[in-house]
Amino acid sequence: MKKEELVDLLQEMTIEEKIGQLVQVTGEVFLMDNIDTTTGPLKDLNLSNKTLYQVGSILNIVGSEKIRKVQDEYLSKSRLKIPLLFMADIINGYRTVFPIPLAQGCSWDPNVVYHCTKVSIKEAGSAGASVNFSPMVDLVRDSRWGRVMESIGGEDPYLGQVFAKTMIQAYQGEDISKLGNVAACVKHFAAYGAVEGGRDYNTVDMSEREFRQYYLPAYKSAIENGAEMIMTSFNTINGVPASVNQWLLREVLRKELGFKGIVISDYSAIEETIAHGVSKDKKQAAYRAIMAGVDIDMMSNVYANHLKELIDEGKVPEEILNQSVMRVLILKNKLGLFENPYGNIDEEREKRILKSEENLQEARKQTAETLVLLKNEKEVLPLKKNQKIALIGPYGDNIAILGSWSIFSDKSKIQTLKEVFEKRMGTKNVLYAKGSEILREKEINQILSADGGNIIHVENEEEKENEYLQQAIEIAKQADTIVLAIGEHYRQSGEACSRANIEISEIQKRLLNELAKQNKKIVTVLFNGRPLVLKDISEKTDALLEVWFPGTEGANAIADVIFGEVNPSGKLTMSFPQATGQCPIYYNHYQTGRPHISNIRFASRYQDIPTQSFYPFGYGLSYSKFEYFDLKISSPKITENSFITVSIKVKNNSNRGGKEVVQLYIQDLVASSVRPVKELKGFKKEYFEAYEEKTITFEITVDMLKFWSEKLQYQAEKGEFKIFIGPNAEEGEETIFELV
Ligand code: NOJ
What's this model's pTM, rounded to 2 decimal places? Predict the structure, then answer.
């Protein structure tokens, strides 16, 4: 459609029809035999059947057949026949599931993130999704928060920017209407990752400097790269919930960042401003949200039931409504839905794509890049295939390895570690025992009871626990090496999965402690969605492989690394704490007046744990051995319009080819406002042949030195800067240069 035709269409619409475009509901209702909004999924929304045929978009209905059915039903009764827009949460995969976003980021490789994203969306796109609620670019520092698993950039704003760009490009391509592309919805705007105490949905209160310096850059990058939509976050920002925050949405998002696309609220977030105590009722919530600039109301009924009244009373100018509606029409038009309301769906192609062996191969390859080797004492890994192993642990023969965003997954495709190990080593060489549950009954029920039922009961729990343990000890005795697969329950990370204690459960620790007494080598494979406290685990194991929730091809990818077919190259994007009480912990923290440099009393430190993290940001081992030396800088001075280069030699001092992520950090030594101890400013992931030495070079520009000054101006200040280049945030070579 031409722009003028959209304007004509808008003019033809009644106020109710316009408001409808700003309402999003789940689509199950259209699939019911007797369509009725007074029962079923939409009961609480108080929508009339008439309003239902005016809504603009649908949440989480995917699949060609379903989409065709819903769209047909809707269009058959809608007056103006404006097609529905289908939006969904394809977070780390549709049928084929890739590693959780936090893991994908640990590849430190935009190519890996691109391919995971592209295949996921090719599958979901073929099944009719037009808008995807991803990427999640919230900066995260506190692993008590269950949603750190969704963060693509972890604790670093630079990584957040790089991967935001990659993901937007993968989703949208050059033209979102083309096969294999969808519109991206960046979330959650803004600073959701900073919820106090790591408790989900909690308050965020932060200085503007902090917000701009750390949190805003990744959203900004997504917008600059053309993201079509943005989702508001559940939290307050400095006293005002994001979904009604005029400063955030009108000043920062629209004016400053120039965002032209659609703003959608998170699920019922507008209505929740009543619980926040900033709206006295639904009508006021609707007023505040639309005036703040939220275009679409996801799953609360406040726009559907109150906007009309607000417009009739003259409180909300119709022009504001028109602007929002126009944005929705523009996106529908860009997606080509007016010409073809079914988008790219094609049942035949869908079947073909979703069955594709190619997607599984791609998943296996990319997943191996996201695993992080945290420990490898005496080079226990890689294992040989002709040895006898005892595979023990609740993740040894378990398919619940997709993470919590796997609502559309095809579970029949998942293989377990046991199956894969047996295929590779022969059944004789793999002894298996479950060893323990992930959680004891009481712990799992604490989680499940909040789901409203379905709690479990284990007969003779203690006896069973001891039995499992004995079986594990028995097989451990017969093997050369123990592979112990333990971790978090998949229901322990994700939305509403905050934890006040981020250790491995007692029951699994008990298992490890008992196995450690057998004097065998132990390789621990860790499944989890967040950095955990690993001190106890690490001390008792010889090798530790962080595999996160690795997705459909997880077991194969893990075996590829364990048997050395793939040399691990992932590095952490979040610091692992020494103890839960150390959260939030992040490498790029500000300098204090009393840094903990040596063992003195009046320093900024904890008495009972070291000050640094247990595993630092950027850390991860390889089967190769990389050495860094000979850091050189092209000039010790940089001026406003020049750049300098800094280079370092990196040598793979081993007989194995492998990849290394060379990391560049900068510290501003003296500035008008306090600066972080270091900030990531660049990285290069390179392959090195055995014994190969390469010179890795980075360009330093003045832009990389800019920050939010004392007067909140974004600028670089003259003076000295330190450069660090190394394998992680705590090791490497350093030198100094000056901005003159
Ligand atoms: C709530 C979550 O916060 C958000 O990330 C998700 O996209 C929406 N629900 C829709 O499912």
Answer: 0.98
